[in-house]
Design brief:
single chain, about 200 residues, alpha+beta, Immunoglobulin-like, 2 domains, five-stranded antiparallel beta sheet, 4 helices
């Protein structure tokens, strides 16, 4: 049975609901004995939240520039709390009580793994690639990972790329001529899926 994970449902929330959720997470994580060394400081996350809240107020008059700024501040704030969610997920190790104590929501129900329907295209420059997948129904975000493929050797750790809200990403600086493995998972209101089977690709 799959381990309980942190639910990334906050990505779906409207700005005013999202700020309330984020505020509660900060309260719950402050001095929480389970979470002493977060990947991002609570002060930094709080600053991002305050900026987001101020941008929401500024955008109330409907000005295009203010609305654009609000979306930028929302993206920064979302990323800060994605990092905190990943930290809670790591530290809780599937313990539902610990997840609940953080203010994030736990996900018990297993979500089917995604099919490895990945298209990888070499970029204009050596070592650059773009990755695309067929959009998954109800997915609100995509988690991407890669590692150097070395058959017969000890498998290396998966390296995570930034989470995207669209079904594509890109990567630069890979070693030309080397073979890499790639895989992805999705986030939906049902939870985070298992990673699909990885595929390999030789970078040019």
């Amino acid at each position: 049975m799959r381990k309980t994970k942190v639910l990334y449902d906050f990505i779906l929330y409207k700005p005013d609901v999202k700020t309330g959720f984020y505020s509660n997470v900060l309260v719950k994580l402050t001095d929480n004995p389970y979470y002493q060394n977060p990947f991002i400081s609570l002060i930094e996350a709080s600053d991002a939240l305050v900026s987001f809240q101020a941008a929401i107020i500024a955008a109330a008059d409907g000005a295009h520039t203010a609305i654009s700024d609000m979306h930028d501040k929302e993206a920064i704030c979302d990323e800060a709390f994605r990092v905190l969610a990943a930290y809670v997920d790591h530290e809780s190790d599937g313990d539902e009580t610990k997840i609940l104590s953080s203010g994030f929501h736990p996900s018990k129900q297993p979500v089917a793994s995604v099919k490895p329907d990945i298209v990888i295209v070499n970029g204009f420059h050596s070592g650059d690639i773009s990755i695309k997948v067929k959009a998954i129904l109800y997915a609100v975000a995509y988690i991407w990972q890669y590692r150097l493929y070395n058959p017969g050797a000890i498998e290396g750790e998966w390296i995570s790329l930034p989470i995207t809200t669209y079904a594509r990403t890109s990567l630069t600086g890979l070693i030309p001529g080397s073979v890499y493995e790639f895989r992805f998972a999705t986030i939906s209101n049902a939870g985070t899926s298992e990673f699909g089977q990885s595929i390999t690709h030789r970078v040019m």
